[in-house]
Design goal:
With about 240 residues, this protein is mainly β. It has two domains: about 110 residues, 3-layer Sandwich (Rieske Iron-sulfur Protein); about 110 residues, Alpha-Beta Plaits, CATH 3.30.70. It is about 10% helix and about 30% strand. Strands 1-11-12-2 form a four-stranded antiparallel β-sheet, with no helix packed on it. A four-stranded antiparallel β-sheet has the order 3-4-5-10, with no helix packed on it. The longest helix has 18 residues.
């Protein structure tokens, strides 16, 4: 059941699978506002009567974005001048080259809440990440045993997803032929899927590989999505459930 008197701060429908945490009163968001949520530092903004939250740490050198100047929905890092759109987190001026994560907001009365994917929704618990194992030599037929390749993949998947910003991407399985990444209880948009597909094509072109991806659910983590990135030698599992 949707919560009364609640509306998404960006004008979209409320997502009930999110975990919402109160961060500020609307009257306090007069300019960039520094907030902290369960140890995570965020920068909160008001642009054209809507509220936006992004990671407070500049990906270039760690500058506090909430202490920067904002103009026309663009925040400038006070340390080295990198600029980001607060609506999307994208970089519009360097030296930063990596976007910042964007978090959904919701206004309830005169208070602003920030949403986080609820990994424990439906009684499931977030998995413990596995430790990757690598071999020194690169093999295009078995690319997931090579650390630089997997690092490039996971960094490429660190883009801000349309509804949630950056996702946790918890690694839960790895072989030389595939990796599985836990995304949490989220919904992927067409924009997200196109960006993942574009990353696969770019890496295949650069490394001579033939990797693809699929997204699935398992009863071990009810409601959560798993992103499987697989090479040409990955086995096709016909089991009714996959255990990690």
């Amino acid at each position: 059941m949707s919560k009364p008197n609640a509306k998404n701060g960006n004008g979209a429908a409320t997502n009930p699978s999110m975990r919402w945490i109160r961060v500020a009163a609307t009257r306090d968001v007069k300019g960039p506002l520094c907030v902290e949520v369960e140890g995570k530092k965020l920068a909160l903004f008001k642009v054209l009567e809507k509220y936006y939250a992004i990671d407070n740490t500049c990906p270039h050198a760690g500058g506090p974005l909430c202490e920067g100047e904002m103009e026309n929905g663009v925040i400038t890092c006070p340390w080295h001048g990198s600029q980001f759109k607060v609506v999307t987190g994208e970089v519009i001026h360097g030296p930063a080259s990596t976007p910042v994560a964007v978090y959904p907001t919701e206004v309830r009365g005169d208070e602003v809440f920030v949403g986080f994917p609820d990994a424990a929704a439906g009684g499931s618990a977030a998995p413990k990440p596995v430790t990757f194992k690598f071999k020194p030599a690169f093999d295009a037929a078995h690319p997931f045993a090579h650390e630089p390749f997997v690092t490039e993949l996971t960094e490429g998947l660190g883009f801000p997803f349309k509804l949630y910003g950056k996702l946790p991407l918890i690694p839960i399985a790895q072989s030389a032929d595939e990796v599985d990444l836990y995304l949490g209880e989220v919904h992927l948009t067409e924009v997200d899927l196109k960006q993942i597909s574009s990353l696969m094509l770019t890496m295949n072109s650069s490394h001579g590989t033939d990797i693809t991806f699929c997204v699935f659910q398992t009863s071990q983590f009810p409601g959560a999505l798993i992103l499987n990135v697989r090479g040409p030698k990955a086995p096709m599992s016909l089991e009714s459930d996959i255990r990690y």
